[in-house]
Each structure stands twice: as structure tokens, then as C-alpha cells.
Amino acid sequence: MPDRPPPLTRIPPEVVAVADYEPLAAARVEPSAWAYLTGGAADEITLRENRAAFDRLKLNGRVLEDFSHGGGTEVTLFGHTHEFPILLAPVAYQKLAHPDGELATVLGAAAAKAGMIVSTHASVSLEEIARAAQSPLWFQLYPKPDRGLTRELVQRAESAGYQALVVTVDAPVSGMRNREHRAAFRLPEGIEAVNLPGSSPMGGRGVEPGSLCGGLLATAPTWRDLEWLQSLTKMPVLAKGIMSVDDAERAAERGLAGIVVSNHGGRTLDTQPATIDALPRIADRVGGRLPLIVDGGIRRGTDILKALALGARAVLIGRPLIYGLAAAGPVGVAHVVNILRAELEVAMALTGRARLSEIDRSVLWRD
Description:
alpha/beta, TIM Barrel, 8-stranded parallel beta barrel, globular
């Protein structure tokens, strides 16, 4: 394999949008790792639909609005005020994208003043990330069959100062990620889920026929496990991976602090709808009872505005984070966030909205 270029130390002037980072990142990441980081499930229909659904939504431009009273993009989530409604999504094994992995990301998050969600499968310890953080950290949890290990992870996160627990509920098994399988991806030596000592290296072709009915799902998490997790911690507990209004209702009834409307970036069940299409139905059912966050397909500030208009309080960015990280480390992460933040502010101004509280569905063009 030819040597791949190192991360950039300076952002080229022609890099002005998130899309400009993608080819720079792809050139710097080993191809099988790129397949893991950016691929989706099966035929990747949901992966593409996440993006296409945003493009189908049109904005309703407004003119001559009075902005003399000032404005802003601040949003309060679980007692902390964020300067803007963009958080870094939990992405596993970030050392696949950059030698410093999550430590580079947390430095970029600090520079951009962005909140960051740390994956259970981070390639740097959650305590080391917390020591480097200067902006809010949340911890993403995959509940494990070993309740002792799950309890330990939650307690470690709380002790390290993480401010929320984001429980992924839509991946009791891995999706059939064919692009990743074709690339024969395996974790390279020296990269592992360091917060899960002794865990098996990733790789292989996924679920074998008969294994689900053979007992693999017997230990998968249930609503009872979420109730148990709520009893373990003072951190607000969010459910990540809700796409059904009925599941959203159950989350609200059980006192969850928030919901992340997510289809796992198109990485689990293919042919699900786009998250932005699922969002308004969930918002209509439970949006007044708990905050909604959405991820999947966000590449522009206009996408963020559309998500806020349809009921989200904030958004998560995953692949854009990886593009910035792989291309230029902390500088790239911060630049990606700042691009999206600036684009959001411009989109708000051109639709006549000075504050997030003024954004509603009238921002969207209706035929």
C-alpha cells in the first residue's frame, strides 16, 4: 500500500464547505477503514435517503425583517447553554481517521465550543478525553449483557464529568454493512475499544444464519434496561435510535430525558426512512414533553435550519466530523463546525429568523 498523505496543518483556501473535506479525508484514510467509517447497511438506500430528504425540503425566504433587537443561536440542553445547536456525534475508533483519534476531536470541539458525545467504542479512554475537554461531554453507551461492566462504564463517565448518557437502542446487532465486508475491514493492530478491556477485535461478516433465533438476541437490551440505567445515574438519560412514534411515546412515558431521532446513519436497517422525514411525526407526538435531537445526512447549515423547523432542538454530525478529523485533525474538526454554524446563521437571516425560538415550520416552503 502506498503511504497516505499526513493530515493537513493548514486549511487550503478552496475548502469552504463540508463537502470539500470529504476527498481530502478519503485520501488520508486506509480504504478498508474508510469503508467502515463512511459506509452504510446493505444497498445503502437509507444512507443516501438521509441526504436526499434534506434536498427535497425547500426554504421560504423572507425579506425586510427587523433584526435591530438582536439575535443568537443559543440552546439550553439539560441545564447547559450551548452557543449553537450542533454537537459532535459518537463515532467509534477515531484513531482510524487520525493518529490522535478522539483527543484530536476533543481539541477541535474545544476550539469551536461544540459539545461532543464520546462513543463506548472510543479508541482513547473516556477519562483521558475528559481531561482534555473544554466543552460539554456526553457519553454514548451500548448496554452490555454484563450488567457489572455496563454499571462500571456509567459510573466512570459520571465520575469523569460527563453531563449526559446517550443510550444507543437501535443496534442490538450490527447491520449488514456490505461495503465494509467487501473491503475486509478489521481493526488494525494498536486500535481497540480501550474502554472495554478484553473486547474482541472487530471484523468478520456479521450475523450468521440462525444465530438470532439461536439466542444472540436473548441478552439484547429492553425498556427495562433503560429504566435500570436511569436508576444508576444522576445524568440525564437519552435514547438514541428512535424512528417510530410509538417508541418515542414509550420513551416519554418512561421519563427519558431526551430522544435522538436516528437511523444510525443508515448503518443498521436499510430501507428505513430518512431521519428528517421521521422527525416531524415524532415531534407532533412527544416534542412538547422532551427535547428531540436528530442526526443523519446533515451537510449544510440549511439542513440544520430544516431540522430545527421540524422539531429538533439540536443536531448531531458524524461523517462531517470524520471528514474534518481525517483531513486536518483538530483544526479540521473546528473548521467543519464553524462552517455549519456560519451557514446556519446565514440561513436564519435569509428566512427572517433572529433566534432559534423563532424557527418553526413556516420556515419551509409549502406548495
